[in-house]
Amino acid sequence: MHIILIPQRRDDTLMLSREGDVLIINEEAYDFSQVPDGATLPASAIDSEFIVHEVQRIDGVLYITIILPHGADASEAARFPAPIIDPPNGVVELPQ
Amino acid sequence: MTIDWSRIITAEMKFEQAKDAKRTRINAAALAAIDAGFEHDGHVFDSDARSQTNIIGTANAVGAGIPLPEGFTWRTKDNENVPMDGTAIIALGAALLQHVNTQYAISWQLKADIEAAKTPEELDAIRWPAAEPPQTAE
Fold this sequence. Notes:
The complex is a heterodimer of chains A (96) and B (138). Chain A contains one helix and nine strands; from the N terminus they run βββββββαββ. By secondary structure, chain A is mainly beta. Chain A has one domain. In chain A, the strands form two sheets. A five-stranded mixed β-sheet of chain A has the order 5-6-7-1-8, with no helix packed on it. In chain A, a hairpin with a 2-residue loop joins strand 6 and strand 7. The longest helix of chain A is centred in the last third of the chain and has 4 residues. With 138 residues, chain B is mainly α. Chain B contains four helices and four strands. In chain B, the strands form two sheets. Chain B has a two-stranded antiparallel sheet. In chain B, strands 3-4 form a two-stranded antiparallel sheet. In chain B, a hairpin with a 2-residue loop joins strand 1 and strand 2.
């Protein structure tokens, strides 16, 4: 799983965790195990304000693009976040 | 509903969409090639829709026994007036039909190739033949 983060100045928070192909966004589970290889799921088909780009599986790897909310005094790592490549199951560490 | 799975676009669906797009491009290329002009008897003649109508209409008129005026000429793509009698006009019409049919035959073969393509790589390799510059008499 590759998680691409799009930084956005907002006052809400994001908690992310992963269980295989399931991504849990602020306690809401999104199971992407049904996305076959080469398929695309439009962002508009996903009921989440954080997923703002199509979800794809390419060569077996899920690509998910998520808004990363950050405060006014966020670090450079949060304002210019690197993609998170294949995070282990459990809580996904996000730049603060 | 968290995820609307009816909206998923599978690899197979993308491949069929790519095939449809390729068919559309082949159709456009065939029409452009038909309109691009054709070589006949050492000259290149226009073959857009108006030219096709003029050539076939004149050839049909000759075939129906209508005489051509004295000193009749047909203007080439590069604006040279070529003297023509009835036989030459009918030959010009035949060459035009051959040109049009050739482009359609190419498009049919390419569309058969599109239908048979099994992979995106095979589909991508299907192209309209590169246009060769028409040969004209020196």
